[in-house]
Design a protein that fits this description.
The complex is a heterotrimer of chains A (271), B (293) and C (375).
Chain A (H helix, E strand, L loop, with lengths): L5 H24 L16 H8 L1 H34 L6 H13 L2 H14 L6 H25 L3 H9 L4 H30 L2 H6 L7 H9 L5 H41 L1
Chain B lengths: L1 H28 L20 H7 L3 H8 L1 H34 L5 H13 L2 H12 L4 H9 L12 H26 L2 H9 L4 H12 L1 H16 L3 H6 L7 H10 L4 H33 L1
Chain C lengths: L17 E10 L2 E11 L4 E5 L6 H9 L6 E6 L2 E2 L10 E4 L11 H11 L4 H14 L15 H13 L5 E5 L7 H18 L2 E6 L2 H7 L2 E6 L2 E6 L1 H6 L4 H6 L4 E9 L4 E5 L7 E4 L8 E7 L5 E3 L8 E12 L3 E7 L5 E7 L14 E6 L5 E3 L2
Parallel strand pairs in C: 3-8, 3-9, 6-7, 7-8
Antiparallel strand pairs in C: 1-2, 1-4, 4-5, 9-10, 11-12, 11-14, 12-13, 14-20, 15-19, 16-17, 16-19, 17-18
The chains are: A mainly alpha (271), B mainly alpha (293), C alpha+beta (375).
């Protein structure tokens, strides 16, 4: 397919406008001098200053960050193991149940996941706090990690592992020296996905957090329920900026690597 | 040894933190109603054995769901909202996916990145962004008043319309990506062949492109429908007090009314509702995979 | 002075390097290797030849240690290797896909196996340099696998698998990914390297030309069994079955019944109208036993008139001519409806060709040209 008609141009323009205008408005209004969010009162970065003075937000942000780092790291380890078992494990008792438990959380409504985990934590008498949120986030994001990693493992050339064994590696050496370095990009994107999911999660965190630990989304949610506020606009802008910078760097790096590899391959064949 | 360890660790984790919680929900949904205070009766007692325990379970919470019309209205309205917004997402998403697939190959990775970018941005923030646009004094009304289309501000925020807009907006990438990948894989010479055989551009689209993109359309619809059905954030921020969605009801049952057995029963029924589309979705994906190999 | 012939398989005192003793391998219901016994000797270049699915790759993977036999024993230098995992066997393998580690440089790929042995640095350095020199890849040491061409990758894979100086090197379709011209060059290179290093090579291939070119002995496999093991010339000239005759090169098979008519000579009745054919054979056939006469097309002469003193001559009509440049193959239809292929070398220009379509011609061959086979 390779046709740019006026129809395609219009639908792409309108589509991307729809996707991005709300965020642009949010960013623009975060620099609004006026407290009234719908009236433009001149340019001012003062809400960013206000935000930095807001202890509650800063604490929540720190908690969220800690939870995200811990849960995404744990989820990456568990998810990679699960992916390896799914793709390479062969048959074992309860394999169907296992793969079911990997895929079910992907489609499970968050309210149900949150509710069920809360009932578990109460049942075993675990106090709700940072630990319970980390456990909850790890559980659902390890499934996302395992999907990302297993889709890479499926296309992994098995003879590479066999070659490593053939050249004297033990099983774990083969994984450490050959498999892991090659699937590393998938593992890293799995970690990033788990990290964002954790940063982003409101519903499950609301169920599993206690009074001792409030995450940023919970804080934002209770603030915006009361209506639009310029401080939240400023906070949103910071978050959007971080994501935008991160994603653009990531895609630029991959693009650069891919073009370089393609060029080198072409050169190699020419010689 | 190593293999057993590899299997056991994630397996045990999921059993303990996914399956067991779920069994607890099921058990509590069958327990006697009580406000906020565990333990819920009956409790499992090793001395009495499993049958005595099972005999005490009952369906009174589920009966309660059918008697109070709040619940079944909420289920119906969730279904309606999910189906309608899935339809609108398709309507908005398909032309974008089509436009992307028709763009020069050089641009496609960039376009793709711009579709995925919002997905990495906080969901909550994307929903919140619409609150400022749709409110009575919001930018949309300001614009419409200024341009003279309307004389009175439209009430959009806190209505079902706002919920539709919110769902379409936040789930749009889920619709675009599978359709795009179906269209992108399509062999361009198929359209040329159709035109060569006498189709106009439009008929070629209806007879060739659309049927070939069907798996992508189906996948996209499920990817929007399934999470939309249990959605909580969008109806509670953009919807009004009369917007009934089951995710919101469950949340309120739990946090406001604190009736956990009923909340659990609501969750069980929601899951039963989801089983059908999930199974259908799985089948569609499997068929797709088989066709690919 | 005569050059000693390398033929340990004919020496009853020679100890084989590898012995398969009644080895079977089953995957569920499917039998990949069926009660197979074979000896492979040191310094041999041994080819396993057969169509895909005949079990040749399974045989090789059992040697490498990636599969264990369901029954029977595999001995390497007299020792059962069933319990030895692949990483502890002094057997190395060159993979069909080369399996070069994409994240490591050529140098690190070759050093990979040596590092696993925890050799001192200078020894590794020395050995890698030697391997690079052997495969003429010195100037590419710092490159990554994607930065070199397919032919170079093949050489690196060879260097990597030879670096540990294994007793036995396994090559799984080593030249399958190369184009035809490069493949032929590389075949000679492989033989050269095998000779230089003195390593025993076992190669798996489905390309009969490749097997014939490189191997000291060829094993033709079918359905998990070895049909024939012999030197390339014997496989071609003296196939032991219709399957081998048909698998290696082109062949005409004439079905008939045999009748002894002299010392190691048989009359083959193949048609109701035509006179019987004469064929010499060391294997004996009883009277009226079903047999197949296999004759290579290049051993059949084609002429306009009936040759005077030919042991066998049949008349037919030219149906098709396949012109291949150096040779031409004539498809000749006999009155019985059978089609016989005859090959002639094109020593003259094509415009001087003696026969054309629809011409009536005589095909003839000597009594020893064909091989008489029971099945």
């Amino acid at each position: 397919m390779n046709r740019m008609s006026w129809f395609n141009t219009v639908s792409l323009t309108l589509g991307f406008a729809f996707l991005y205008i709300p965020m642009v408005i949010l960013i623009v209004y975060s620099f609004n001098e006026s407290k009234l969010v719908t009236v433009w009162g001149g340019f001012s970065p003062k809400w960013y200053g206000e935000l930095l003075k807001n202890e509650a937000f800063l604490t929540a942000a720190w908690v969220t960050f800690k939870v995200a780092v811990a849960s995404s790291t744990l989820a990456t380890v568990l998810g990679t193991m699960a992916a390896y078992v799914l793709v390479r494990g062969g048959r074992f008792f309860g394999r169907t149940l296992f793969s079911g438990m990997i895929y079910a959380p992907l489609v499970m409504p968050e309210v149900i996941t949150g509710l069920s985990l809360l009932l578990l934590f109460i049942g075993i008498g675990l106090d709700r706090g940072v630990l319970t949120i980390v456990l909850a986030h790890t559980t659902f994001s390890m499934c996302f990690v395992s999907v990302v990693v297993s889709s890479r493992l499926v296309t992994f050339d098995r003879s590479l592992e066999e070659a490593a064994l053939d050249l004297g590696c033990t099983g774990s050496e083969a994984f450490r020296l050959v498999t892991l370095p090659i699937i590393a990009p998938a593992v890293i994107s799995g970690w990033l996905l788990a990290f964002t999911l954790s940063l982003d999660d409101l519903v499950i965190a609301s169920f599993t957090s206690g009074p001792a630990a409030t995450t940023l989304p919970i804080k934002i949610f209770s603030a915006v329920r009361l209506g639009v506020s310029p401080e939240i606009n400023a906070l949103s802008t910071i978050m959007i900026a971080i994501v935008a910078v991160g994603v653009s760097i990531a895609s630029l790096v991959t693009k650069y690597q891919m073009t370089r590899q393609m060029k080198e391959e072409q050169e190699a064949e020419r010689n | 040894m190593r293999r057993a360890f590899l299997i056991l660790v994630p397996y045990t984790w999921l059993l303990a933190l996914f399956l067991v919680p779920f069994v607890i929900v099921l058990k509590i949904s069958l327990s006697d109603a009580a406000i906020a205070r565990p333990p819920y009766l009956p409790q499992f007692d090793w001395a009495e054995g499993i049958w005595a325990f099972l005999a005490q379970l009952d369906f009174e919470n589920f009966v309660w769901l059918t008697q109070d019309d709040l619940y079944w209205k909420a289920y119906l309205s969730s279904l309606k909202i999910a189906i309608t917004s899935t339809f609108f997402t398709l309507l908005v998403g398909y032309p974008i996916a089509y436009g992307m697939a028709s763009a020069p190959p050089m641009w496609r990775p960039t376009l793709m990145m711009f579709v995925i970018l919002p997905f990495w941005t906080s969901f909550l923030i994307r929903v919140y962004a619409w609150m400022g646009i749709l409110s009575n004094e919001g930018l949309l009304n300001q614009f419409l008043l200024w341009s003279g289309f309307i004389t009175e501000p439209l009430v959009i925020l806190n209505t079902n319309l706002a919920v539709y807009i919110g769902i379409v907006y936040t789930y749009l990438p889920f619709m675009i990506l599978p359709i795009y990948s179906a269209l992108e894989r399509m062999d361009g010479s198929l359209i040329e062949a159709a035109e060569d055989l006498g189709c106009s551009r439009t008929t070629a689209f209806w007879l060739v492109t659309l049927p070939l993109s069907r798996p992508g359309v189906i996948a996209g619809c499920f990817l929007v429908f399934i999470p939309a059905l249990g959605e909580f954030v969008i109806p509670s921020l953009l919807g009004g007090s009369d917007t009934l969605m089951i995710g919101k009801v469950l949340w309120e049952e739990f946090f406001s009314n604190r009736d956990w057995p009923v909340a659990s029963a609501v969750a069980v029924v929601l899951l039963l509702l989801l089983v059908i589309p999930i199974v259908l979705f799985q089948r569609n994906q499997q068929k797709q995979q088989e066709a690919d190999t | 002075m005569s050059i000693p012939v390398f033929a340990p398989w004919d020496d009853p005192l020679a100890h084989p390097l590898i012995q398969f003793k009644n080895v079977s391998k089953r995957f569920g219901q499917f039998t990949a290797i069926d009660d197979l016994t074979i000896d492979i000797f040191e310094r041999e270049f041994f080819a396993l030849l057969g169509p895909s699915g005949c079990g040749k790759t399974t045989l090789m993977r059992m040697l490498a240690g990636f599969e264990a036999p369901s029954e029977g024993q595999i001995l390497l230098a007299g020792q059962d290797i069933a319990a030895v995992p692949p990483n502890l066997r002094s057997v190395n393998m060159m993979f069909q896909s080369y399996a070069l580690f994409p994240h490591l440089s050529i140098w690190d790929n070759i050093a990979f196996g040596l590092r696993r042995e925890r050799l001192p640095k200078d020894q590794i350095e020395e050995r890698v340099t030697e391997m690079l020199r052997l495969t003429r890849m010195e100037s590419f040491a710092r490159r990554k696998p994607h930065q070199i061409s397919g032919g170079q990758r093949q050489r690196v894979a060879l260097a990597r698998s030879l670096a540990k100086a294994p007793k036995l090197l396994l090559l799984d379709e080593p030249l399958g990914a190369l184009d035809k011209k490069l493949r032929q060059e590389t075949q000679f290179e492989l033989m050269d390297i095998q000779e230089k290093t003195g390593t025993t090579f076992v190669i798996v291939t489905h390309d009969q030309e490749e097997a014939m070119t490189v191997a000291s002995r060829v094993a033709v496999m079918d359905h998990g069994k070895i049909v024939q093991v012999a030197t390339p010339d014997k496989i071609y000239e003296e196939p032991n079955s219709v399957y081998v005759a048909d698998f290696i090169g082109e062949v005409n098979i004439i079905k008939g019944t045999a009748k002894p008519d002299g010392e190691a000579s048989f009359a083959v009745t193949w048609s109701d109208t035509a006179p019987p054919l004469t064929a010499l054979s060391q294997t004996t056939f009883s009277a009226d036993q079903d047999c197949h006469l296999a004759i290579r097309p290049e051993k059949i002469a084609i002429s306009a008139d009936k040759p005077e003193d030919a042991a066998n001559a049949v008349q037919g009509k030219v149906l098709d001519i396949a012109y291949l440049g150096n040779i031409s193959t004539y498809h000749v239809e006999l009155p019985t409806g059978a089609i016989i292929k005859a090959q002639t070398a094109n020593t003259r220009r094509i415009s001087r060709r003696a026969f054309t379509w629809e011409d009536t011609v005589w095909l003839s061959w000597t009594a020893s040209a064909g091989v008489l086979l029971a099945n």
